[in-house]
Amino acid sequence: MQRISANMLKIYIIFLLLILIRLCSFNIFNWINNSPQEIIPSNRTLGFDHIYVLHLDYRKDRREIMDKLLSYFNLDVEYFEAVSKYDKILNKFTNANSKLTVGQRACYVSHYLIFQSIIEEGFNNTLILEDDVDFEVNITEIMADIYQNLPEHWDTLHIGHCYEMIGQPVGSSSFPNKLYQSVNPQCTHAYAVSNSGAHKLLKLIDPIKPIGPVDYEISLIINSKKIISYSIHPQPIIQWKENFPSEVSFPTTFQFSLTNSTMNLLGLIDKNQYPGQ
Ligand SMILES: *[C@@H]1O[C@H](CO)[C@@H](O)[C@H](O)[C@H]1NC(C)=O
Ligand SMILES: *[C@@H]1O[C@H](CO)[C@@H](O)[C@H](O)[C@H]1NC(C)=O
Ligand SMILES: *[C@@H]1O[C@H](CO)[C@@H](O)[C@H](O)[C@H]1NC(C)=O
Ligand SMILES: *[C@@H]1O[C@H](CO)[C@@H](O)[C@H](O)[C@H]1NC(C)=O
């Protein structure tokens, strides 16, 4: 009798232990599931889902500089083959009445194809860079600070731009690079598009009947309030394209230089001049 009850006790204890383990694991499981979803922005993509670098395959010089910048920041990007002036795909989008140059049409189509790709891949937010940009050395910290102020719903975020006036401030940042409502951002060297933004832009722009260059059209769409857009001033990503902006006269209120250039830090600028200038 005594042996049986001792065995019974053992079984009973093991049974209790099993229940306890089961309860604990269930609780741990539950606790993990219920803990707030911490969204750690991936610094390798500057907090975005994805980075595309629009690149013309024959511009090996630009690719070389871009690769050095990317490896300095340890960034993870996808080079997106830009449509060139010589590309046959442009014929698909030919419009005899277009006032655009062939280069402007190629640029328009390239950005259009990127928006399509964003939808196909299902990216929530994507940074689009052109292959001739320079970054503030602390771009990662700047973007981390911008996310503190960036409203939940946005369609485009203009990190780099040109000839843009400063709009209404958004949020409160104690750092110099702050967020504003977009007014009239031109240029497409560094801007981000959300999934909703890509959907809207694909409906609103038309590479067969362009009204103007793609950046001009996007700024018209922003002005008509059909999309929600924000801009960073001063811009922490600039474009160093040939002859830019030396041939154009512009008011000094527009800023085209960086506080702390990464290309300068890495010795990629000769005699204080950007390549090709
Ligand atoms: C988009 O966001 C959702 C919700 O946060 C997430 O589950 C999904 O993985 C994201 N998509 C990509 C491509 O990162
Ligand atoms: C991303 O960069 C910011 C700013 O440098 C830093 O505070 C944060 O810890 C980094 N996050 C990760 C996941 O590395
Ligand atoms: C980035 O660096 C500049 C100096 O180059 C500094 O003034 C600014 O506060 C820094 N921004 C952030 C967000 O750390
Ligand atoms: C620029 O960045 C470098 C590297 O982080 C730093 O050593 C230097 O002090 C910065 N210069 C200015 C003017 O912020």
Automatic annotation (TrEMBL):
Transmembrane segments: 12-32
Glycosyl transferase family domain: residues covered: 49-216
Superkingdom per UniProt: Eukaryota
A Pfam match: Glyco_transf_25
GO MF term list: transferase activity
Keyword terms of this UniProt record: Membrane, Transferase, Transmembrane, Transmembrane helix
Xref: InterPro entries: Glyco_trans_25
Protein name: Glycosyltransferase family 25 protein
